[in-house]
Amino acid sequence: MGGYGSPEYLVSQEHNLGLLTLNAADATNRSKLYAAVKKKLTAAYCVITGAGTAAAAAFKILNGTSSIGIITIGTQTAGAIATAVLDSGAASIAAGSVINITNTTSDTQGAGYVVLRWQDTF
C-alpha cells in the first residue's frame, strides 16, 4: 500500500453486504465489516427486495457506535434503490474500525441488498 503515489490511492471499491432484513428488534446488528486500512465511505445504497410496512424502516451505518449514515427504505417497492444520507464521520474511518449495519425499526417485510462504496485513503 504505497500511499499517495500508489495506483490504488482513492480507487473506489464496492462491498456487497448481501441480503439484509429489518425483521429484528430495533438496533440489532445486521452485518459487520472490518476496515483494514483507513477508508472513506463515499456512498451506500440498498436495492430493495421487500417493501417495508413502516415509513421509518431503515438501515443505520455505524463506525463502532457512532452513526455515520442511514439508508431509509420505508415503504418503497421492491426493485427501488434507496441511497444513504451520510454524515461527516463517513469521510474518515480509521484503520481497525468495525463498521456495523443495524436496523432502526423492526419491520417484518423490509429487506434489501446493501452495498457500501469505499475509497482507501491510506
- State the end-to-end CA separation: 7 Å
Q: What is the molecular shape?
A: elongated
Give the ordered list of helices and strands. Answer: EEEEEEEEE
Instruction: List the quaternary state of the chains.
Output: single chain
Tell me what the structure shows.
- The chain has 122 residues and is mainly β.
- The protein has strands at residues 12-21, 29-34, 39-50, 58-63, 66-72, 81-83, 85-86, 98-103, 111-120.
- A 5-stranded antiparallel sheet has the order 2-8-4-5-7, with no helix packed on it. A 4-stranded antiparallel sheet has the order 1-9-3-6, with no helix packed on it.
- β4 and β5 form a beta hairpin.
- 28% of the residues are buried.
- The mean pLDDT is 88.
What descriptors fit this protein?
mainly beta, single chain, 122 residues, 0% helix
